[in-house]
Each structure stands twice: as C-alpha cells, then as structure tokens.
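Colleagues,

For the teaching module next term, I've prepared a clean inverse folding example: a structure given as tokens, and then the sequence designed for it. I'd like students to try predicting residues themselves before seeing the answer, so please don't circulate the second half yet.
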C-alpha cells in the first residue's frame, strides 16, 4: 500500500510514516509538494486541513475531480461545521488532533474496508469463488477452506494487483482483539492457501507482504 502524507508538522509527519513502516509512504509538507507527488499509484491520502500554502479541503475537492482515492483529514478543530465541510468536500473520514497513531491506523483500515471493491463472486483463470455461499472451486474441483483462509482469499481477490503488507493482513484477519499474533501464523495461512490453489497467483513481495497478481 502506498500512502501520501500531507502534514506540515514534521514530527507528526514522521510519526505517521513510522506507524506505517511496512507500507510505502510519501511524506509531503505542503499542498504544492502533495500535488507534485500525487498520482494514480497512491492508495490513500492522510491530509492536514491547515497547510502553509493553502487549505486541505480545497485540495481534496481538486482530487475528487479525477480520483476516488480514500482521504482521511487531520484537523485541530473539532467544530461540527468544519467536520461537515470536510466530509462534504469528499473526505472519507477525519481525525481530530491530538490523536493516537494506533487509532489512526484503525481508521485507515476501516476506510480501506469501505472502499475496496466488495466482490461476492469471482470467476477467473479456473477459479470460481462465491463469498456469499462460501463455496470455492479450482478448475471445477471443490476446495475446502478454513475461516482464516476464506478471509485471506477475500482480501486478496478484492485487492488484486495491490501489495498488501503483513501488518495490514494481520490487522484485518485476526480481529478478535488479541494484542499479539505471531507473524508465522500469517505465513502458515498463506502457504496453506497457496497449496489449495493450482498455479496460485499469490506472490511474496519480500520485506513487505503479498500480492495477488492479475
């Protein structure tokens, strides 16, 4: 996942980048810098409202003319009118300063869940998956998947062509409130899912996570 951070407070900007250290982050400190860095490869924008060379709300409106990339506003103002204006400009969520970086990560995951394509049926390259009935076929043969493997498969299918970090996958699959999940649990789940899918398109992106190659 590639995140564009637009925040003029350098300490906060660095803190946000560190909290997403397993994702690719692009750090900018003004609207002009953000405009130069924004492109179709950006998966999410964390955008401060008050910036040295303009207003984040205006930048959000400009982005919305050409892109539906998820946007989360950072604001020091919790006035209802400002929040409404931000959301009406096209933002997907907002968070009021000061905030916990853990809360920001949770908000990011929630926004990504809402924005990812939610396909119930997937048919391609010999795969026939139905996530409503939880029936899965590989080249016409039924495939039995555990609950964890079902969640993992749905994440991969709904994010085809996008690199998913290990941290993001763990956060999204093990949502039972456990404070610690061994990284090996994800590796085992991915290995078992690969074994059940002929010519599995799930590839390892070393040092980051995994991708379902289109």
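(Answer key — instructors only)
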């Amino acid at each position: 996942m590639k995140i564009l951070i637009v925040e003029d407070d350098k300490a906060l900007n660095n803190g946000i980048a560190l909290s997403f250290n397993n994702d690719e982050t692009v750090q900018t400190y003004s609207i002009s810098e953000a405009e130069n860095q924004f492109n179709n490869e950006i998966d999410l924008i964390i955008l401060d409202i008050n910036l040295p060379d303009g207003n984040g709300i205006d930048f959000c409106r400009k982005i919305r003319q050409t892109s539906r990339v998820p946007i989360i506003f950072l604001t020091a103002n919790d006035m209802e009118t400002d929040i409404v204006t931000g959301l009406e400009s096209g933002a997907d969520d907002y968070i009021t300063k000061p905030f916990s970086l853990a809360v920001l990560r949770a908000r990011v995951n929630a926004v990504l869940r809402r924005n990812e394509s939610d396909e119930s049926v997937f048919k391609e390259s010999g795969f026939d998956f139905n996530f409503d009935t939880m029936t899965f076929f590989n080249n016409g043969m039924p495939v039995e998947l555990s609950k964890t493997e079902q969640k993992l498969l749905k994440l991969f299918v709904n994010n085809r062509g996008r690199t998913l970090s290990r941290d993001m996958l763990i956060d999204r699959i093990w949502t039972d409130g456990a404070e610690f999940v061994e990284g090996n649990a994800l590796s085992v789940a991915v290995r078992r899912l690969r074994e059940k899918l002929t010519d599995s398109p799930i590839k390892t992106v070393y040092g980051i996570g995994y991708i379902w190659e289109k």
